[in-house]
Amino acid sequence: MKNAVIYGRTSEMGPNFHEKISIDAQIYEIEGYCERKNYEIVETFVDKNYSGGNDNRPDFNLMFAHLEKHHKEIDAVIVYNLSRFSRNLTDLKKYLKILDKLDIDFLSVMEPFCELSGSARGFMINILGSVAELQREQNAEVVRSAMMLKSRQGKHMGGKVPYGYSLNRENGKYEIVEEKAEIVRYIFNSYMDGKNPTQITEEIKSARAKSEMKLNESSIATILTNEKYTGKYEYGKRKNNPNGDRKKRKVDQENWVVINNNHPPIISRETFDLVQKERVKRRIVKNKVEDKKPTKGQKLLTGLVKCSCCGSHYYVSSSTRNYGDYYYYMCSNKKCPHKKVRKIQLETIVLQTILEVFDPEVFKDLYRREYDKVLERINISLENDRFTHKKIQDLIKEKNIYLNVIRDEISQKVNILTDDYKERVSKINKQISTLEDQVHRNNIKFLKGDLPSYSQIFEVLDDSIYNIEFLQTFSFGTIKNLVKYYIEEIVITDINTNESSVEIIFKQGAPSVEFNLKRGQRNLPDELEFSDDDYEYDLLILVTNVIVQMKEQGMAV
């Protein structure tokens, strides 16, 4: 009796596609074949749910390792049919060649021609191998078409349903689970409040939010970057590599399936976009390499100021004297003879020129956009407060349950759980205190947040209000973008050792403006300061309300 190793394989490509020939059926047929042909089965190898399109199969590879080690003891490898062994003609030929070198026969229950020898066997294997490869491609195409049709209907394509949603089994789409969605909103809003994923995780856990997901920095980051929370559906961003490598490759964006408003949103598009900008901003800050001597102050005009002598750009430098730090714009070419100019002088004149050259409507529009951001921040704060208040109430209920048990034990002179429950009550009190402090901080921060309407604001804003102090109520990012939007470049030319000529070249069709800047002036004002955080608008809110109050009291603005 001869010795045989047998191999079986099935694949599962998607939820609605299964191989017709099960593993059990294959083994049953092979065992019958071995009995008829007088083979004894010494080893069985099976790959369940693996494609025959490549050789990336655990038992398939184990089988060949076993064959190389024990080839003198094995007479044949037997399969149900060729497609179970491989659906890739190149792989099929490769492994049949290995079997020939090991002097091991390859036999198929359903293809008797495998028992032939020479060119006849090779000819038939080529034909059947090509057919198997074609079938594989057709099966894959059927599955791809079915999945693409399903994706175009905006249906869930498998995998984990995003936290905050459940899956409607009838239409295959997401539905909001409000209790979980509240946590998702809290995560987004807290991030916009300046908290990092670690802080957000700790706060949610301290609030004893019930969550089926494991909260950590990674899961918080996954939530913050998932566009599905805006109601947007995307499919087909990555695809399998044709060489069988399990690492997927990116697909060109024009080939994605994208459906907006596919399911109910948990997060507004505006909030999602703000969070992505904030993530980029934090990443830049984190990766920023500081100079050996850090330059304090904001660099409003970097990238715009140019030297007329050598064409190099100016950068911000600093020096320390008896009366404090001084900041300058100076040419980046160390060999250039041009002198440096005081930062406060140049920035003040540039901003003043912008205010004089452009129509007040420009600044009204700027104010309007900042105003919208303020409202967004206030709404986020209020939503966070609602979430926090709810968690406080839940903790109070839990605390009262423990207090009732403690009272009952004391009245019955029993002390079984009293100490344990007292410790729990103490922990809950700390959690409540932390959350109440958080609410209090938000209330202080946004006490000024009862903003007047646009019309009220513009009634009291006359042209005289648009000055540098007014611009300083905005964030640094906003003012820097304003400067870049209107100014092409600023060219500095030294007139003599004490004076420089500054030319501002505008983008928006406005004529260039030139002025002279004197060096060595004393008693200059402090450096201009803007909020570093694009989302801190306390000063803007305060100024707005003060202006309105002054108007109501009949005072001149």
TrEMBL record:
<dbReference type="InterPro" id="IPR050639">
    <property type="entry name" value="SSR_resolvase"/>
</dbReference>
<protein>
    <submittedName>
        <fullName>Recombinase family protein</fullName>
    </submittedName>
</protein>
<dbReference type="GO" id="GO:0000150">
    <property type="term" value="F:DNA strand exchange activity"/>
</dbReference>
<dbReference type="Pfam" id="PF07508">
    <property type="entry name" value="Recombinase"/>
</dbReference>
<dbReference type="GO" id="GO:0003677">
    <property type="term" value="F:DNA binding"/>
</dbReference>
<dbReference type="InterPro" id="IPR025827">
    <property type="entry name" value="Zn_ribbon_recom_dom"/>
</dbReference>
<feature type="domain" description="Recombinase">
    <location>
        <begin position="162"/>
        <end position="285"/>
    </location>
</feature>
<feature type="domain" description="Resolvase/invertase-type recombinase catalytic">
    <location>
        <begin position="3"/>
        <end position="154"/>
    </location>
</feature>
<dbReference type="InterPro" id="IPR006119">
    <property type="entry name" value="Resolv_N"/>
</dbReference>
<dbReference type="Pfam" id="PF13408">
    <property type="entry name" value="Zn_ribbon_recom"/>
</dbReference>
<dbReference type="InterPro" id="IPR038109">
    <property type="entry name" value="DNA_bind_recomb_sf"/>
</dbReference>
<dbReference type="Pfam" id="PF00239">
    <property type="entry name" value="Resolvase"/>
</dbReference>
<dbReference type="InterPro" id="IPR011109">
    <property type="entry name" value="DNA_bind_recombinase_dom"/>
</dbReference>
<dbReference type="InterPro" id="IPR036162">
    <property type="entry name" value="Resolvase-like_N_sf"/>
</dbReference>
